[in-house]
């Protein structure tokens, strides 16, 4: 009975919401007002941040606004004299209601999606794909019952159109290779997929460095810097952090020995879903990185000499640096069955130094026989190898929408 009443209440409240949603089309939108958000409103990072800061610096004619539900981020941006508003505030809602362009990373709620009917949406997303995302991921997770929920989904999209994550304006990618996968994942027309690059990668071409890099470069001036960035597992969402140093033949003593003899500094940056997990390693050349240790992640990444990852999209970002990548698909068979399938043949398309346990990692680091990616490989995934993605996206907006 209670469940039925809840459904009735939701439906009743959906009617005025729906009426307001379609009435928004009558409200004039200012072509010079652009709104930005990222990661559920909780983070100031990624592609949205990069293009927001570009617009503030290079486009004084645009009134940009960052929206957040995180008070610390709000206070920080206020102190830096950057335009910011809380998502739940009247100021934030009114800005979304009159903005002409909105930039998001994960979902529409980051920029008050309920107030965006009539605005142009740029879905910057947060990585080129290896594994299933969005609708493809949902279809895999639901399995045989996927088709049975189609009518319910259509009804929900009709009653709550502002929550429809497939009502997109445009999506940005780094190369033509990714167009069919984003078309499938977002159920979007291919013409809405812009091959303009990723704003966050522009910093890979800068000369600035994070303080933590300067610190360890001072301590170890001749060392090669390694950054290890595995993708998350579903267990991380349930409080069971992924730890690649548990199992797979890991040997702490040999690890320390290789760091010293090979003159390496090893930065470990786990996915933020795994931030609460413990890593039982203590050595001067091993540095566990958390979000509190840097300001801009890719400004940290740009000073690394070697990347170690598994199925993370950072693989594609790091290609721009033309430096060695070591792939560690230790749990490949388990991952594609229990986590998510991949869009294409990992062994055929994802080229790098592949190793399948820690003994092979140690051997590669010891012999220093890792190789840099070829120009042919980089060109497969990245159209423009420069630091001008923000500029291209802005010009695309001005050309097509203004």
What would you say this structure looks like, in words?
- The chain has 402 residues and is of the alpha/beta class.
- The protein folds into two domains: 2-197 and 388-401, CDP-glycerol glycerophosphotransferase, N-terminal domain (Rossmann fold), CATH 3.40.50; 206-381, CDP-glycerol glycerophosphotransferase, C-terminal domain (Rossmann fold).
- 39% of the residues lie in helices and 14% in strands.
- The protein is built from 17 helices and 13 strands.
- It has helices at 2-23, 46-58, 71-79, 90-98, 134-142, 150-159, 179-186, 211-219, 234-237, 252-262, 297-301, 314-319, 332-338, 346-349, 358-367, 375-381, 389-401, and strands at residues 30-36, 63-68, 84-86, 99-104, 120-123, 170-173, 193-195, 224-228, 264-268, 286-288, 306-309, 325-327, 353-354.
- It has a seven-stranded parallel β-sheet, sandwiched between helices. Strands 10-9-8-11-12-13 form a six-stranded parallel β-sheet.
- Strand 1 (30-36), helix 2 (46-58) and strand 2 (63-68) form a beta-alpha-beta unit.
- The longest helix has 22 residues, at 2-23.
- The protein starts with a helix and ends with a helix.
- Residues 1-5 have low confidence and may be disordered.
